[in-house]
Write a structure and sequence with these properties.
4 copies of one chain form a homotetramer. By secondary structure, the first copy, chain A, is an alpha+beta fold. Chain A has helices at 4-17, 29-32, 66-78, 99-103, 114-125, 130-145, 154-163, 165-176, 184-195, 201-212, 223-236, 242-248, 285-298; strands at 40-45, 50-54, 60-61, 151-152, 197-199, 253-255, 260-265, 269-274. Chain A is built from 13 helices and 8 strands. Chains in contact: A-B, A-C, B-D, C-D. Chain A binds chain B through residues 87-93, 100, 109-110, 226-228, 230-232, 234-236, 240-244, 246-247, 250, 252, 266, 301-303, and chain B through 87-93, 100, 109-110, 226-228, 230-232, 234-236, 240-244, 246-247, 250, 252, 266, 301-303.
């Protein structure tokens, strides 16, 4: 085990010197046009400090990382009844697969595959105006990060809305099984906007402190619920690459297609990483590497 | 958090007073005829002590828990090359499903579904006589438990061999993709025998100390490998109930259809539980409950 | 073999005396509220005559039988290029399954499962206003039936549009693979309206004469194309009940969820049957029985 | 329509002048080493004559075409009860897929996919010695062909037995669902031997006369059963290429991986073709082409 500042510096240097950054997500122009050779790392430690390396004040699209926040908000509203509509098992399939949904009659495997996140957002929406639900998610993220300067990028949301045919298919499919309580367009509109929240790694790492249950973190989620959310991130946080992440990093985490990665070190730290080039599972390539290296050098694996 | 002796006593009493034990596995007479209303718990703690409650000197068939031991042995023999033949991702399907095997062209998802365990045993066998491989597994288990009085129940092995049509199908299927290097009958024979190892909860808990990396545990697996094995148990240890176990217990574990359950508390303890009645996923019903209660009362969740 | 009039009378009496009519489709009120104990049969024979029994002047919703007409129209417009967008193989799955679509990357198995019919309608639409495509289908049906009094029931179309979540999912899913060239809403609107065409069995039997290639039938489809359409009806006309229909009836046919059934006797006759109660595959229960009995008593099996 | 002798000559010449013969099956040496550039055609017509072109006296391995004969024999023994163990629907999957077997709990889709043929052979075996069942199949083939000089190639059978891991997997899988009544090895042994029957195209065309119900054919199968067998060949005779065959040839047929093809023209002719190079579905490439051309030039499509 070593000092976090040393580790951070060493890992950052080693990874930025590598040539292999992966490809950014191609499905919307806002993500596709980003230079993949970028890296930001921020770590909030138990002593209340935040350490960063690289472009830690650069805003990026958190995309699927927002599924954590909408899940927390939806559990606050629907309680454990949410688990009658969505499971908590790894799916063994890719993030946008519709296959299991048919054999399981409209109940998504977990809240982190797209279908499950759409159900979660639907539970949060619960008959209200989309902007009310979005205000609730944004309010939660801001409170967790203790930073009011967190916003939704409307252009990104609009691009998703224009191109998200697969997500529209999932929403209508869920509706066909009666597992969508709001009109599909409203739920999807909310979902596309929550994915378009922009944060810096500093903000995201700070928002993760509650889940890491470190001192000074806002008391928003009970320790009991934080543990369960971390468990979910461990088994389902990286789609069909979740086992690999658990194996190599040994920490709960959630990735987004924008290249963001939130990694929780229970009781010890909250780590946010951003690097927009992706690996074969659709997770940040350099980000996953950074997480593995930091975990190893700091002795942070929970196993 | 409380004292382990208090917790153990309280959990044992609460669970044994429950009427709902579940049904033992029905597919072979040796398992089917067991009275489900039985419970044993043993816990090895970091101070080198072993605490037990219930029938902790009763032998039971470890079944799929043996997959941990054959995996350790196979990794010792084949090294990381084993991962070219079997993955490390949760499957999202039941323990004996053959479906994914077709779409993934003969590469099982992980070493804990039956197909993956058969490949693991095949890698361990590697052209030798089955009895050599079995001696190696038994030797490993005995060394980990520091107890030479651990044996294979030949009747149980014979029963499995007689009735294991699904496993035979898996083996020939793997062979059809060239992912079995020994004759299917030899690999299966070895596999059926390793599943028929009998242990008490005391022996099993002691064998788990190495994975828990607690003081005094035999140095058989490096800390690095132990962490990876624990990660695998977390994401894949309970088939399509793995997410639920992570969610409710928050610890890596591996179950067997004989009602056994090995649970690892990294750095702190190794827990073995036995209760032969099963839940819907084929895992010990009372055992899973004991694990969740102990984890909660001791504050042992790794999340 | 016997006389068609005798056969018709005998079959009609035997089937109407049966109590077991099945249940009408429940998903839209217009179909659900229909009394299942109704039967109409019309047969156009090679001598140019049309014989009927039962409610042969009653209008019913042709539903999926419309897929034949939209396919003929789309082939007229797109030619054999249509087969690059949709296959001609039986699917082995139910009419609205989305599973194969994922493994085959957005190319539906055949034009008679819903996904395939949506692609077909999309090819027919080809950038035009939906009402233009609908006029083309209606014009084709009227020409084939030589009867201008055939219309679309707007209420049924509206009901489908309101409840067709599964079809919306299929359309967006096809779009996500680039296999929908028009906006999903426009293609679906056209599709829902074509399904809402209403006909009597007399009109439908007359519309089938072209496919039966009997004297006096309008020359709308070449003998070569008629043969291929009949082959498609044989292998794919009844979803996952196609094999059973081929086995028991021995004739190409296409069913609709409204209880209609068009059966072709190549070179000899065109049969339309309507009875709104359905069997387990979603095909007319009494209708299938009538088809089997008529085929047998007339010696009409093509095998 | 034209004269059969002219057609036969023209088709033979056109196809043999083509360079594209496809690849023979590679999984056993007996099939793999055959020169693909070979063609034999024999046609038995309603006037009792047999016309041939090419290597019509050359023996080839009938492989899956034997499934027709074992089905006829099994239906003779088990009657319609066989249909409780195997379905009559196209599978939409390849000949040796195990996937559907899991979702349908051990009941194969139809008797022409490998799993279904193994069940059929098992029903025929019904507790007897394999050689008894094989004698029954051989006896049936000889009676249908009116030729006693038809035998099993023991080398081919032995090769299949050595390499048939996928079929062994299917057999054990069926056994795991209780859908195999004999020991898997006995049923498989019988199955591998029936596939190794050798015939010339003359013999095979003559054996098909009963199904074509042409004058002079041995009365072995009732017209009712012949029709049903033809229907099965139409919907399921070419695995996941059945729809394509129906579409292009318009006749019931059954292919074998040895390059054989039996095509039935109900009431008119029985056609046997052999050319060992295969297309993507595992059916004879030149053979399929010959069938399509003959059907078209003779006007033999049943549609």
């Amino acid at each position: 085990m070593s000092d976090i500042l040393d580790s951070l510096k060493r890992v950052f240097e080693e990874v930025t010197q590598e040539a292999d950054w992966g490809q950014p997500a191609q499905y919307i122009p806002e993500l596709a046009e980003v230079d993949p050779a970028q890296l930001a790392i921020s770590v909030c430690t138990a002593d209340g400090k935040t350490h960063s390396a690289g472009l830690s004040d650069k805003l990026f699209s958190i995309q699927s990382i927002s599924k954590i926040f909408s899940l927390i908000a939806a559990l606050g509203r629907a309680g454990d009844q949410l688990w009658t509509r969505v499971g908590c098992e790894p799916s063994g399939t890719s993030f946008d697969s519709i296959v299991l949904l048919e054999s399981e009659r409209g109940q998504p495997r977990n809240p982190f595959v797209n279908a499950g996140a759409i159900v979660t957002t639907d539970a949060l929406l619960s008959g209200r105006e989309p902007k009310m639900a979005l205000a609730e998610i944004l309010g939660l993220v801001r409170a967790m990060a203790e930073d009011d300067n967190i916003h939704i990028n409307a252009d990104v949301a609009k691009s998703e809305q224009r191109t998200g045919e697969r997500n529209k298919a999932l929403a209508h499919y869920l509706a066909s099984y009666g597992n969508l309580l709001n009109p599909p367009d409203l739920t999807l509109g909310t979902y596309f906007h929550q994915c378009a929240i922009e944060m810096t790694t500093v903000q995201l790492a700070r928002a993760g402190r509650t889940l890491a249950r470190i001192d000074g973190a806002p008391k928003i989620v009970s320790a009991h619920h934080a543990r369960r959310l971390n468990a979910l991130m461990m088994t389902c946080g990286h789609y069909d690459g979740s086992g690999d992440f658990a194996f190599k990093v040994g920490l709960p985490g959630k990735s987004g297609v924008g290249g963001g990665l939130l990694v929780i070190v229970p009781g010890k730290a909250s780590i946010a990483i951003w690097s927009p080039g992706l690996n074969a599972y659709g997770n940040s390539k350099a980000g996953t590497r950074v997480a593995a290296m930091l975990s190893q050098s700091m002795g942070w694996s929970i196993f």
